[in-house]
């Protein structure tokens, strides 16, 4: 049973274990698939790798079977991929092909083996007709202990990417160093984004994330303490740059008039110049409403969050649970 707080559009649910989180996540996938079908769309879903593969491989197939749903119309892509041979244990596509796909009914989903930007322009057009930026119905993203999501790492210049929809990274702090990843513009364009974090190693980053979002929601003009802390083993501002940039996915059109001062506040002296204020943070200041999380401040608790705007898309979900 999940402990859930926050308005329906921005819900935080805490699951006692991944065993309980998994079925809820599977239900969410089916709900989004049904919503896409109801809207006359093919269901497009992007999946991260890492620990998520096991959760989905365990809990999605039984949910699909008991709902008697056919995944034949689904389009499945990967939020990021490590550039290793498909049979390598680090390959995200390889892991899904080995663990999840054989457990789904036949015919299974259409699988994009590389994110659309890596494909020729003609093929991208066919996959996401009429969309400059692919609008996924659902992105299921993991969160690393350092706050990375997909292969978007805290403090990495890739967070500033605005043009590409898929970008290469050759210096990933987490091995393997060479990867490709969906960029923030794609994350921000999705109809719903689910962040899944399990295990104690994620507790610290989720705590910072939650606290910052609360601060932002109370007073979007001040990111508060820690945000100008450039020292220490963890650059909290950068961590939040990733995390809050992701939370932007929820949000509203940007207000052009917002200045960097507005985002960093004046409490810690002179605000940084616009250049030193990451776009993801500028955007994060516009996250509306309240994100609550029961117990999420406790370092040993992790959270399941569902964040969605009151009107229309996109919606953001974060899921987490202590490790089994
Ligand atoms: O390197 C990666 O890490 C994240 C988080 O992985 P996890 O095993 O800690 O859940 C993952 O979401 C991403 O796809 C992957 O490339």
Automatic annotation (TrEMBL):
CDD domains the record matches: 6PGL
A Pfam match: Glucosamine_iso
Keywords assigned by UniProt, alphabetized: Hydrolase
Keyword Oxidoreductase in annotation: no
InterPro entries registered for this protein in UniProt: 6-phosphogluconolactonase_DevB, 6PGL, Glc/Gal-6P_isomerase, NagB/RpiA_transferase-like
A GO MF label: 6-phosphogluconolactonase activity
Biological pathway: Carbohydrate degradation; pentose phosphate pathway; D-ribulose 5-phosphate from D-glucose 6-phosphate (oxidative stage): step 2/3
Record SUPFAM superfamilies: NagB/RpiA/CoA transferase-like
Region (Disordered): 256-277
EC number annotated for this UniProt entry: 3.1.1.31
Domain Glucosamine/galactosamine-6-phosphate isomerase: 17-211
Biased composition (Basic residues): 264-273
Catalysed reactions listed for this entry: 6-phospho-D-glucono-1,5-lactone + H2O = 6-phospho-D-gluconate + H(+)
GO term, biological process aspect, one: carbohydrate metabolic process
Enzyme class: hydrolase
General function of this protein: Hydrolysis of 6-phosphogluconolactone to 6-phosphogluconate.
Assigned protein family: Belongs to the glucosamine/galactosamine-6-phosphate isomerase family. 6-phosphogluconolactonase subfamily.
PANTHER family per the UniProt record, alphabetical: 6-PHOSPHOGLUCONOLACTONASE
Protein name in the entry: 6-phosphogluconolactonase
Gene: PGLS
């Amino acid at each position: 049973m999940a402990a859930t707080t926050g308005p329906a559009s921005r819900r935080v649910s805490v699951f006692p274990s991944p065993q309980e989180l998994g079925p809820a996540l599977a239900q969410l996938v089916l709900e989004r698939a049904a919503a896409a079908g109801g809207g006359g769309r093919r269901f497009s879903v992007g999946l991260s790798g890492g620990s998520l593969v096991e959760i989905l491989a365990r809990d999605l197939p039984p949910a699909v079977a008991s709902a008697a749903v056919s995944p034949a119309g689904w389009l499945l892509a990967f939020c990021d991929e490590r550039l290793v041979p498909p049979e390598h244990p680090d390959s995200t596509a390889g892991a899904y092909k080995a663990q999840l796909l054989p457990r789904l009914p036949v015919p299974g989903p259409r699988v994009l083996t590389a994110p659309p930007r890596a494909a020729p322009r003609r093929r991208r057009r066919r996959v996401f007709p009429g969309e400059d930026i692919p609008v996924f119905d659902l992105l299921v993203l993991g969160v690393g202990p350092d706050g990375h999501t997909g292969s978007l790492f805290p403090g990495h210049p890739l967070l500033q990417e605005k043009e590409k929809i898929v970008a290469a990274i050759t210096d990933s702090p987490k091995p393997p160093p060479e990867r490709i990843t969906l960029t923030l513009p794609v994350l921000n364009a999705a109809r719903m984004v689910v962040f899944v974090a399990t295990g104690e190693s994620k507790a610290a980053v989720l705590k910072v994330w939650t606290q910052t979002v609360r601060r932002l929601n109370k007073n979007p003009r001040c990111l508060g303490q820690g945000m100008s802390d450039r020292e220490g083993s963890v650059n909290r501002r950068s961590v939040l740059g990733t995390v809050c940039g992701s939370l932007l996915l929820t949000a509203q059109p940007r207000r052009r008039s917002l200045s960097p001062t507005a985002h960093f506040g004046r409490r810690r002296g002179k605000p940084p110049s616009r250049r030193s204020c990451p776009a993801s943070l500028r955007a994060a200041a516009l996250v509306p409403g309240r994100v609550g999380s029961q117990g999420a401040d406790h370092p040993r608790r992790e959270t399941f969050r569902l964040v969605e705007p009151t009107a229309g898309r996109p919606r953001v979900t974060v899921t987490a649970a202590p490790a089994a």
